[in-house]
Amino acid sequence: MNDNDTSGDEQRAVLAGITRPLAILGGLMVMASAFVVMVSVAIRGSGLGAIGGDFEIVQMATALSVFCFLPYCQARRGNIVVDTFTNWLPRRARDLLDVLWDIVYAVMAGIISLQLLRGAMDTIRSNTVSMVLGLPTGWAIGVASVLAAILCIVTLATAWAMIRRKP
After folding, report:
1. Which of 1, 53, 109, 160 could bond 152 through an S-S bridge, CB–CB 3.0 to 4.6 Å?
2. What pTM did the predictor assign?
3. What whole-number distance in Å separates Cα of residue 138 and Cα of residue 127?
């Protein structure tokens, strides 16, 4: 095994160490949301009402869980690839196309992160809260901004790993 292989393994380990716990956290949020919905429906079905604001909890948890899953998906190169028109290209050319699209993805994730940060600052400054539970929404938007920034970094790291990979 040469140095490039070792550094690639180390990079994969670092990315997994960052992205796997986030994905697990996202999964826990989805499970918690499902539990809230299940309990709310059961309470509603029994005629006792429902959990007030259950939809607000589910909305926030769902949004944050998606942002938790995206870096893990990118680190594992699990995004959908449409290679119908590129299969005939040599492997290195396909890798360079993947690098290009990783960079585009990173730029988009960076823009999303910055816009979420702006939104978080605005909602925190204006004390925006959810309608039923009165939960401050700025913190959730701020967390989503950080998670989008992590996605940007992970995407750049996977692009860099592909550039460094031996043909």
Report:
1. 109
2. 0.87
3. 8
